[in-house]
């Protein structure tokens, strides 16, 4: 799909068909993450690919019972790895760059999902420690986003946007 069409066609999907995501498509999503820029090219994040039903349920509970989290055939969990970025960038790497690295990777995956005919929704409302518990990970990783991915079982709600002049300032 043409890039600007991908931007236009991406909408949050919160209902998923039971159909699984093909392994080659899943792989393409992860390869898309791997193309994302990152501070110092450190790629200071980890991505968990969750398909285990009990873990999907635990993630759904961690996300304050947002039901579609457990309905998706796969949920990708993007975690910042502050220590990895701190090794080069100290405090700024730990608190900012690692989170940005993980965020950009997730945004790339969301767009790649659209290009592959898949739906997704960015989930930021969750209890960090409950996500850590579901994934059996320690405090060295910071869960930044959950991304349920699958084939859409709904027509997306089309959301509005601000006009450019509401948030763009030209400095000339
Ligand atoms: C940082 C962030 C956190 C979000 N958290 C949630 C969430 O917890 N649950 C949810 O249903 N959608 C969540 N969303 C999706 C937004 O609601 C959605 O992107 C926005 O309404 C615009 O709609 P669109 O994605 O269809 O363009 C989140 C999006 C972002 C970027």
Please characterize this protein's 3D structure.
The chain has 172 residues and is an alpha+beta fold. The chain has a single domain, classed as NADH Oxidase (3-Layer(aba) Sandwich), CATH 3.40.109.10. Helices cover 45% and strands 14% of the residues. It has 7 helices and 4 strands, in the order ααβααβαβαβα. Strands 1-2-4-3 form a 4-stranded antiparallel beta sheet, sandwiched between helices. The longest helix has 34 residues. The chain is globular, with a radius of gyration of 17 Å. It starts with a helix and ends in a 5-residue tail after the last helix. The model has no long low-confidence stretch (mean pLDDT 98). The structure holds flavin mononucleotide. Flavin mononucleotide (FMN) binds next to loops.
Which properties best describe this structure?
single chain, 172 residues, alpha+beta, NADH Oxidase, 4-stranded antiparallel sheet, 7 helices, 14% strand, globular, binds flavin mononucleotide
């Amino acid at each position: 799909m043409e890039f600007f069409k991908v931007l236009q066609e991406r909408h949050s999907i919160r209902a998923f068909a039971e159909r699984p995501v093909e392994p080659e498509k899943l792989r393409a999503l992860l390869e898309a993450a791997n193309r994302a820029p990152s501070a110092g090219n450190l790629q200071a994040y980890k991505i968990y690919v969750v398909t285990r039903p009990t873990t999907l349920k635990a993630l759904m509970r961690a996300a304050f019972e947002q039901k579609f989290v457990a309905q998706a055939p796969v949920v990708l969990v993007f975690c910042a790895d502050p220590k990895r970025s701190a090794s080069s960038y100290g405090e700024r790497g730990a608190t900012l760059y690692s989170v940005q690295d993980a965020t950009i990777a997730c945004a790339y995956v969301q767009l790649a999902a659209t290009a592959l005919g898949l739906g997704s929704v960015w989930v930021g409302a969750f209890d960090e420690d409950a996500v850590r518990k579901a994934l059996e990970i320690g405090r060295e990783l910071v869960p930044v986003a959950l991304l349920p991915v699958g084939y859409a079982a709904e027509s997306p709600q089309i959301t509005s946007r601000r006009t450019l002049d509401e948030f763009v300032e030209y400095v000339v």
